[in-house]
Design a protein that fits this description.
The protein has about 450 residues and is an alpha/beta fold. The protein has helices at about 35-45, 80-90, 110-120, 165-180, 190-205, 215-250, 260-270, 285, 305-315, 330-335, 350-360, 365-380, and strands at about 5-15, 15-25, 30-35, 50-55, 60, 65-70, 95-100, 125-130, 155, 180-185, 255, 275-280, 320-325, 395-405, 425-435, 435-440. The chain is globular, with a radius of gyration of 22 Å. About 50% of the residues are buried.
């Protein structure tokens, strides 16, 4: 007989259900069903059944993250697959899609399969490695796309970059259309991004002075504000372009880390027009603005409050399909020198739950859809994202009442930097099961 595990004394929530008190039975790696009270009583007395008391906490399908950086190979001082997958488990994630901006760049199916196997062998979560749109991010070579199989590589992306040539991007999209592969777009005009980076460097030079004066900080703030304005234009123009190119190619595009009101309006309109476009927003763009976090460096940058509110609205009205972390771990030295990005896997649920459910009235069912069911659906994963019989036993238990304080040093990730340092959030990951096995417990 397969290993049997009973998780009981639980609230069961996914996109389609919210059962206040119930139990879930796991056999081997799969969800076997939802036993009745009488069946639960019998199994509690059965020594052949393992038991896990949820203590009244909430069982959710583990989260699916469409956008994670693990820095492996090439930058494992920032993160490697083991530390990254452990961070995913600690954050309640059962599946993560890895970006290809490693060293070397992941530009072939063989390289992707190698990382998939290396990550999956660790047993903390499922790893899906994406492949670059252009070979080695050279901006022009797309012949490697001809060799991809969508069942192995469901998504291509130039994340961290943008394909500058519209002709190259259109041809890549046409190939992806033929192969039924999603094109995930990092929408940022590269020439405008260069200009913004120079302003950032000047700002950081002022801030990093041994004795930065009040005037220095004021100048740095002004420079960063100018950079952010340029990067808003960079995101908007690249988004408009990519939507139009995708319409021409007839391909499914997925827009990464959308952060401006204009981009969300354009996506909303494209969807109304029947175009196959999906998008993600990040927990940090959901919960933070640039007014209160002036010197936090990330791409795209934190936006003004009107843009943050537009991100919240887009999740509530369905324009934004999923929440993705854009987990981007860095060493403390890298962050001090201006490397953009934050570690986000271990704070994503609490940030999203606090902002969306507690502050804006979203149901936990809807949040589960955004973090589990919908990303699984977009990726074509039919074995996860819901609490249903026959699904993979990827299960996360959360305490929706627990208030905790963020301390980056406690992260499983090597990347300890977080803009949420010292902030109180509600919603703690109590335990994570992957393929029916306990891989994290608080």
């Amino acid at each position: 007989m397969k290993d049997r595990l009973l998780i009981y004394n639980a609230r069961l929530v996914d996109r389609d259900r919210d059962i206040k008190r119930g139990a879930i039975l796991i056999e081997g790696k799969k969800i076997a069903g939802f036993p009745t009270k009488d069946a639960v009583k019998k199994m509690l007395d059965d020594p052949k059944v393992s038991k896990f008391d949820a203590r009244g906490n909430t069982v959710l399908p583990s989260f699916v993250d469409m956008h994670v950086h693990m820095r492996d190979p090439g930058q494992t001082q920032k993160e490697d697959l083991r530390s990254g997958c452990m961070a995913a488990a600690a954050g309640g994630y059962g599946t993560v899609v890895l970006m290809p901006n490693t060293n070397p760049v992941i530009s072939s199916q063989d390289m992707a399969v190698f990382n998939d196997n290396k990550g999956n062998d660790l047993g903390f979560c499922r790893v899906i490695q994406s492949v670059s749109i252009t070979k080695d991010f050279d901006g022009k070579t797309i012949s490697h796309l001809d060799k991809l199989n969508s069942k192995i590589v469901p998504l291509i992306t130039e994340d961290g970059h943008e394909v500058a040539s519209s002709a190259v991007m259109l041809n890549a999209m046409k190939t992806a259309k033929e192969k039924k592969i999603i094109v995930s777009c990092h929408c940022e005009d590269p020439d405008l991004a260069v200009e913004a980076r120079e302003l950032r460097k000047k700002a950081l030079a002022l801030l990093n002075k041994r004795k930065a004066s009040k005037e220095d900080k004021s100048k740095a703030e002004k420079l960063l504000r100018q950079a952010h304005q340029i990067l808003a234009v960079a995101e908007d123009t690249a988004t408009f372009r990519n939507i139009r190119l995708a319409q021409e190619a007839g391909v499914h595009i997925h827009l990464c880390h959308v952060s401006t009101e204009q981009c969300l309006d354009a996506i909303r309109q494209a969807k109304e027009n029947g175009q196959n476009v999906t998008c993600e927003v990040t927990p940090h763009h959901l919960g933070l603005n640039c007014q209160k976090n002036k010197f936090q460096i990330v791409n795209p940058p934190l936006r003004p409050e009107n843009d943050r509110l537009a991100v919240v609205k887009a999740l509530l009205d369905g324009t934004a399909d999923v929440i993705a972390t854009d987990h981007a771990p860095h060493t403390q030295d890298d962050k001090a020198s201006g490397s953009p990005g934050f570690s986000g896997l271990e704070t994503a649920f609490a940030t999203s739950y606090t902002v969306l459910c507690l502050e804006n009235g979203m149901s936990l069912k809807k949040l589960s859809e955004k973090m589990s069911a919908r990303p699984a659906e977009i990726l074509g994963l039919k074995d996860c994202g819901l609490l249903e019989e026959g699904m993979n036993a990827d299960i996360t238990i959360v305490d929706t009442d627990k208030i905790w304080t963020v301390h980056g040093e406690e992260f499983a990730s090597k990347g300890k930097y977080t803009p949420l340092e010292g902030k109180k959030l509600t919603g703690e990951i109590v335990a994570t099961f992957y393929n029916g096995k306990l891989v994290f417990q608080a």
